[in-house]
Specification:
Helix content: 40-55%
Strand order of the largest sheet: 1-2
Largest sheet: 2 strands, antiparallel
Number of strands: 4
Shape: rod-shaped
Radius of gyration: 49 Å
Structural class: mainly alpha
Distance between the termini: 157 Å
Number of helices: 36
Length: about 750
């Protein structure tokens, strides 16, 4: 039969013995107190409530009690108590109101009040904010023993302290189990386990009020505090910040991002470090479960950007990513990571002018990626060389970029019927910028280049034929002029040295250009020069001289476009003016008749070449116009008609593409460009040589200003015309008739 037990689960015999022991001890204490003045050793004996007296019972491992239906151990290990931070205290310093002689003790027992010694626990334990409450609420988060234990309270600096950095995760994890697992698997947890000095433990972060309380709404102050906490290591500690490829600048850029700026304005919905990287589960992007891992980042961004993510999720990029293609772009590949700027910010990679070159080109102009996935390697280049691309490069205010046609996030294959670039949808896509676009807009490739022999054969052959034509024509002009220059240079040198005599020529002037013709020439020259400058500004937007013009004003591209069109109108008007002059005036009809090609215009160049090379003693004698002026004039007529026609097609693109198709528009653009090169080079090499750099007339032929040339110039270049005028031949211009023979006695003649 089991012995009878007390409420403290002790055999009754033992209880009686201890009762007697307690009574004897109490009597002895009273006696000692009465004789204290006569016994100096009495003060060294324990008082009735001393720890030793308590341990007489509580050092028994079998000492228990029942509480709320549960057996509770009342055992206190002497060794543990001796090694605790409270070893200098008596039991009753914490367990107040106990009477050693009253067994069992008072019921209910008075709770231990740690705050009687440890003041302001809330201020020192901000990670448990309820400790600041008054009265103190009940709960594990407010019970000191839940964290520090009961009798085994370790000193802060001792190895047994449960909240050393290495032990915090386990100690805090006793209550915060899910968080413990997240932290231990995080970049911080792994660094801490590896013994990295700069790795944070729980209290390194939570000593600051950075956690959202249950039921509390997110506050801007909390979000800013979280940013400040993260930056205290990742920005202010070089050992931490420099571990990223871009160093601390990578983290510092967040402040200037659209998210950082919004938080600075008090927009609580804006994302901060925790919103993207997580708190306890923070991990590097290479870790599969990380919020910023490539496969998970779209879902992270979707917490705020649901619409954009939904569009992205049906794109070719998202489909490829789900198949495991890590080369496929995600949000940060286009928008950046920490320094995400608004799409309206000119510094943003997704700003309208920057999208093609800074975003799309990074993949679609990559030799490695285009070869690896069989993508068109010239997609970016063909766009860049198109009118849209040139406008972007030239600094146009309103520009079209890749996203204008392919969309920003829902980028799909051209074979997908729901794609914006599906053939059946192209008219609608083009119609966003080109009102009235019809199906003829879809006839012809979008990304075309004269270099594409297979994809764009018509443009390829037009361009190559023009290149051959330019090489032959301009090359022939260059050879012709070099031989002419060499012959005239040697003749001039011989005259200077007196090796050959110079025949005397009378000082007379002859009308070469009427006022009407000089005005036409001036209008033509001004419009042509403006067309050359503004036209090549579009095609070569990065040229040094174009950059210099663009630096003058941000509106240079708008001005360029306007000036080019106005100059084109003036050129066409000058052509019509000239046609009227040829038809309705006597001088014009005579000019036209004299400029008509003749058979000798085919043979004279060879005769001049033989003369310049020294194979003929004399050069051919020319009339009013030689093959030099005639080829230039008829080339001008041809060029004006061709450039005017193609220019009108390019100007009114909506109508022209609707009539002639996209292919017809591209043909016009190719012809317009190469004809401009041919015309410009012809003026520089042919015209400028004969009216400026020709040694016989340098620094210039003044006929375009005065309308007249000297008899010496007529004798050298137009001897047959000079003879006709001197003889008063048919249709001789009376204004060009030679004056009476000069009277040398009165000095040189003046005309």
């Amino acid at each position: 039969m089991a012995p009878e037990t007390s409420a403290f689960n002790l055999p009754r015999r033992i209880c009686l013995v201890r009762w007697c022991h307690a009574l004897l001890l109490g009597a002895g204490c009273l006696l000692a107190a009465g004789r204290l003045h006569g016994d100096p050793e009495a003060s060294k004996k324990p008082s009735p409530n001393a720890s030793a007296a308590c341990l007489d019972c509580h050092s028994d491992p079998k000492l228990t009690m029942k509480k709320a239906g549960h057996v509770v151990a009342l055992f206190v290990d002497r060794a543990v108590l001796a090694g605790s931070a409270h070893n200098s205290l008596e039991c009753t310093d914490c367990h107040e109101g106990f009477d050693a002689g009253n067994i069992p003790h008072l019921s209910p027992l008075k709770s231990v009040d740690c705050a009687s010694c440890h003041e302001e626990p809330g201020r020192k334990h901000v990670f448990h904010p309820r400790l600041a409450g008054s009265p103190l609420p009940k709960g594990d988060d407010t019970a000191c023993t839940a964290c520090h234990g009961t009798h085994a309270v370790a000193r802060i600096k001792s190895a047994a302290f449960p909240f050393t950095p290495a032990q915090q995760a386990e100690s805090c994890g006793r209550c915060h189990q899910p968080v413990r697992g997240q932290f231990l698997a995080s970049a911080h947890g792994r660094a801490l386990a590896a013994g990295r000095k700069e790795a944070p433990a729980c209290l390194d972060c939570h000593r600051q009020p950075v956690a959202l309380l249950p039921g509390e709404k997110v506050r801007i102050e909390l979000k800013l505090a979280q940013i400040k906490l993260c930056e205290s290591c990742h920005l202010k500690k070089a050992a931490v910040g420099d571990q990223t490829l871009l160093g601390t600048k990578f983290v510092a850029s967040f402040e200037h991002s659209v998210h950082g700026a919004a938080l600075g304005r008090g927009v609580v919905e804006a994302a901060n470090c925790v919103d993207c990287h997580g708190s306890h589960e923070m991990n590097q992007a290479m870790v599969a479960g990380s919020r910023v891992n490539k496969s998970r980042l779209p879902d992270t961004c979707a917490k705020c950007h649901q619409t954009q993510t939904a569009e992205y999720n049906v794109s070719v990029h998202a489909v490829a990513l789900r198949r495991g293609n890590l080369d496929s772009p995600i949000c940060t590949d286009c928008h950046g990571e920490h320094e995400i700027l608004a799409h309206t910010n000119p510094a943003s990679p997704v700003y309208a002018r920057n999208v093609a070159q800074q975003v799309c080109a990074s993949c679609h102009a990559s030799v490695r990626l285009t070869k690896k996935y069989g993508l068109a390697a010239d997609s970016f280049q063909t766009f860049s060389d198109s009118y849209h691309g040139l406008a972007v490069r030239g600094g146009a205010v309103e520009v079209v970029n890749c996203a204008s046609c392919h969309s920003s996030h829902a980028i799909k294959s051209h074979l997908d019927p729901t794609s914006t670039i599906y053939k059946g949808n192209l008219a609608a896509t083009c119609g966003q910028c080109h009102p009235g676009a019809n199906q003829r807009f879809t006839i012809g490739r979008v990304h075309v280049s004269p270099e594409q022999r297979v994809e764009s054969p018509i443009l390829y052959w037009i361009a190559n034929l023009y290149v051959i034509l330019i090489f032959v024509v301009i090359g022939g002009m260059t050879v012709h002029n070099l031989t002419d220059f060499a012959r005239k240079f040697l003749r001039k040198l011989a005259l200077q040295k007196g090796k050959i005599p110079e025949a005397p020529v009378a000082h007379r002037l002859y009308l070469r250009m009427t006022v009407h013709e000089r005005l036409q020439h001036a209008v033509l020259a001004i419009s042509f020069i403006l067309l050359v400058i503004t036209g090549f500004m579009l095609h070569y937007p990065e040229a040094w001289w174009v950059v210099a013009i663009r630096d003058v004003s941000s509106r240079a591209f708008v001005a360029r476009s306007l000036i080019h069109r106005l100059a084109g109108v003036v050129l066409i008007a000058a052509g019509l003016w000239h046609a009227g002059y040829l038809i309705f005036t006597l001088d014009g009809r005579r000019l036209f008749r004299d400029l008509l090609p003749a058979w000798r215009d085919l043979t004279d160049p060879w005769k001049v070449l033989r003369y310049n090379l020294g194979f003929a003693p004399e050069k051919p004698r020319f009339g009013r116009f030689s093959y030099i002026e005639k080829t230039e004039y008829w080339a001008l007529i041809w060029g004006t008609v061709l450039m005017g026609a193609t220019g009108v097609i390019l100007w009114f693109e909506n109508t022209s593409i609707g009539l002639f198709t996209k292919l017809g528009f591209d043909i016009s653009r190719t012809v317009h460009f190469y004809e401009a090169i041919l015309a410009t080079l012809a003026i520089l090499v042919w015209h400028f040589y004969f009216v400026i750099f020709n040694p016989d007339i340098y620094p210039m032929n003044l006929a375009w200003l005065t309308g007249r040339v000297s008899e010496r110039e007529m004798l050298d270049d137009h001897p047959l015309e000079l003879e006709r005028l001197q003889q008063g031949g048919p249709d001789a211009d009376p204004k060009s008739a030679p004056p009476p023979a000069p009277d040398h006695s009165a000095g040189p003649p003046v005309v």
